[in-house]
Design a protein that fits this description.
By secondary structure, this protein is an alpha+beta fold. It is built from 17 helices and 20 strands.
Length: 551
């Protein structure tokens, strides 16, 4: 009986898909890329429109030979690497090696024509995989060319740059097109920190009461002017004047504030939250997500992919997934948590629209139900993804916010103070998930202040005035989360490359991670300065971003 040959990247993925497709298919793994540019030569013909020479990667000969042998007896060949540019390039190289032309993929054999087709799915579930095999397609050469253009650029940059580094720094080191730009960010941040001149400033807080609870208001200015305090002498004068003043409420403004949920995870947002909330490195978070995507044994249910594909820059979600999670929210949390219409989120201009956000393949699989089947780290990552997705389709949180302006009158001078307090009126999405932040913001501060009922003109009693000296802080060093955020905001690299970038600059000893923060090494400084001076255009921050946009 003839069989279909299905080729994916990893054995774990092959095992899961084999169960869904049954005995009519053989599912094999290519173990990632099978071809690349040669290691010992350029592999790019600069005189022939950048024609490339791709060769079998050393060590992959046995894998390719086995796939060729299986292909000879196959009735049809389905290429099912990941649904991104890398996956499309792997599929194209497999098609070439198995005898197809890598577009419509017809291969002549003794039996006749064998069709080589491309199959993609965003999640490894029985429904999604079987549906994908009903709609195979040709290889998308636009995606292949986009991937190979990046590869050729990296090779050309490497071949130009490496000899200079060997000559000026030390033999054997190298630099990449995107990694060096990331290193430049870290080096420039380090120099900003060293050049930073701290400035003195003071805060003055008045502790007041009219009724319980007492509260603290902060000095903002004299009269209608904002008044920064830059030295102890001025602070002492204002403190003394405030201590001898008559205190009253100038105005009370109450308003309702809404805070909307964040979009479901893209790769970079997932990496940032896994770093901040779980303290996982970007590399570790992506490895765990890969396992959840490829499949987990759920006992009687068998092996199931628990999350959708984890390399994506799109926040889009399928209509079926939205309908399912809205139903779950209504049942689990109540109808008041379900928006009238589904929440929608815009993609960045450069996002690949065919992709979905990272989400559970079934929102009904609650993390607590999955815990028995997962390792501790897998459970934490799955829970993070599940919570973020469920929260993304919930109603906003609603706060009652009160801003109180306070006058301290001393003679003809009026010293103005302000306090803002917030009360959470409706939890909304916060019942499930709160996005991590780089630093505390005004909303966090406002939630700390519990204010009594105050009215305009009301007299207040002063308990004490505190004056405190501070100094401005230099910009913080990058950690993994903030570096990923910076790379994403500047348009440098792709979601799939952030983990590799961070690993590479550490492996090459261009930076060290100390206390979770990146600090450039001496060689990191030398390499950055040398490359920026000699290849200004290539290692320009905007050049790399523009290139990604055009590709």
């Amino acid at each position: 009986m003839s069989k279909g040959l299905v080729i994916v990247e990893s054995p774990a993925k092959a095992k899961t898909i084999q169960k869904y497709l049954g005995s009519g298919y053989d599912v094999e793994a290519s173990l990632g890329h099978i071809k690349d540019l040669p290691k010992k030569s350029l592999g790019v013909d600069l005189d022939d429109n950048f024609a490339t020479e791709y060769v079998i990667i050393p060590g992959k000969e046995k894998v390719v030979a086995r796939l060729k042998k299986l292909a000879k007896s196959a009735d049809a060949i389905y290429l099912a690497p990941d649904p991104d540019r890398e996956g499309e390039a792997i599929a194209a190289h497999l098609a070439e090696e198995l005898g197809g032309d890598s577009i419509d993929g017809k291969r002549k054999s003794k039996k006749g024509a064998v069709i080589i087709r491309r199959v993609t799915f965003n999640e490894i579930t029985k429904r999604a995989v079987q549906e994908a095999f009903l709609h195979p397609r040709d290889i998308d050469h636009n995606l292949v060319n986009a991937q190979q253009t990046r590869r050729v650029l990296d090779r050309l940059v490497g071949y130009q740059v490496s000899p200079l580094l060997w000559d000026k720094v030390r033999r054997g080191i190298s630099a990449g097109r995107v990694q060096t730009v990331a290193l430049r960010l870290i080096v420039e941040r380090d120099r900003d920190i060293k050049a930073f001149v701290k400035e003195e400033y003071w805060t003055i807080d008045a502790h007041l009461h009219a009724a319980k609870p007492s509260f603290a208001a902060r000095f903002i200015g004299i009269g209608d002017e904002k008044t920064p305090i830059t030295n102890g002498e001025d602070a002492a004068k204002i403190k003394a004047a405030a201590e001898g003043a008559d205190w009253s409420v100038r105005s009370v403004e109450k308003r309702e504030r809404r805070r909307s949920p964040a979009a479901p995870f893209t790769t970079s947002k997932f990496q940032q939250d896994a770093s901040r909330k779980l303290r996982f490195s970007v590399k570790r978070a992506m490895m765990i997500a890969q396992r959840l995507y490829e499949g987990v044994d759920l006992g009687e249910e068998g092996t199931v992919g628990l999350i959708t594909y984890m390399r994506t820059d799109s926040p889009q979600v399928s209509n079926d997934a939205v309908a399912e999670v809205r139903e779950l929210i209504g049942k689990e949390y109540g109808k008041e948590f379900v928006p009238e219409a589904p929440n929608t989120y815009k993609s960045k201009k450069s996002a690949q629209e065919a992709h979905e956000a990272i989400r559970p393949t079934a929102a009904s699989r609650h993390p607590d139900q999955m815990k028995q089947y997962l390792q501790e780290d897998e459970y934490k990552v799955y829970k993070l993804i599940w919570q973020r997705f469920v929260a993304s389709q919930m109603n906003p949180a609603v706060f009652d916010q009160t801003t109180v302006e306070i006058d301290a009158k001393n003679g003809n001078d009026i010293y103005r103070f302000r306090v803002t307090g917030s009360v959470l009126k409706f939890e909304g999405f916060l019942k499930v998930y709160e996005e991590s932040k780089d630093a505390k913001d005004e909303e966090d501060e406002a939630l700390k202040h519990k204010l009594p009922v105050l009215t305009e003109g009301q007299k207040l009693t002063l308990k004490e005035v505190d004056a405190e000296q501070h100094f401005t802080e230099p910009p913080p060093r990058f950690n993994e989360a903030s570096l990923v955020k910076e790379l994403e905001e500047r348009g440098i690299g792709r979601p799939s490359t952030y983990a590799a970038i961070i690993s590479t600059i550490q492996e090459r000893q261009y930076v060290q991670k100390i206390g979770g923060k990146f600090i450039p090494t001496e060689i990191g400084f030398v390499v950055t300065d040398l490359l920026v001076a000699n290849f200004k255009d290539i290692f320009d921050l905007q050049y790399t971003a523009r290139l990604e946009e055009e590709l």
